[in-house]
Amino acid sequence: QVQLVESGGGSVQAGGSLRISCVMSTSTDFDYCMAWFRQAPGKKREAVATIDSDGITSYVESVKGRFTISQDNKKRTLYLQMNGLKAEDTAMYYCAADEVDYGVESGPDPFAYWGQGTQVTVSS
What we know:
Blueprint lengths: L1 E6 L2 E4 L4 E9 L6 E7 L6 E6 L5 E3 L7 E6 L4 E6 L8 E8 L14 E2 L3 E6 L1
Parallel strand pairs: 2-11
Antiparallel strand pairs: 1-3, 3-8, 4-5, 4-9, 5-6, 7-8, 9-10, 9-11
């Protein structure tokens, strides 16, 4: 059983920064593939960044150079540092995990475990 709880969302002006977090609760020591997704109103859920069990990261093109995914394995916490935020980054951000390694190109379907989301709003 895996539970994911996101936090750290909020409102920020364009150009600003925000860090969101996701804490995983699990009874296993398995190294999961972790990911951040986002979904804006009326749009499909899209992968933002992933970090696999070997620590290899991947990013959607629109956030490269601005967002950084990282994790603290001891604390079972996943982070997304977002710099240079733009109005189009406004969305609900979700944390996801799976036993299999995936990159952003895999999309949301393969991921088995999901958090409830945290809202990020960027005003221009």
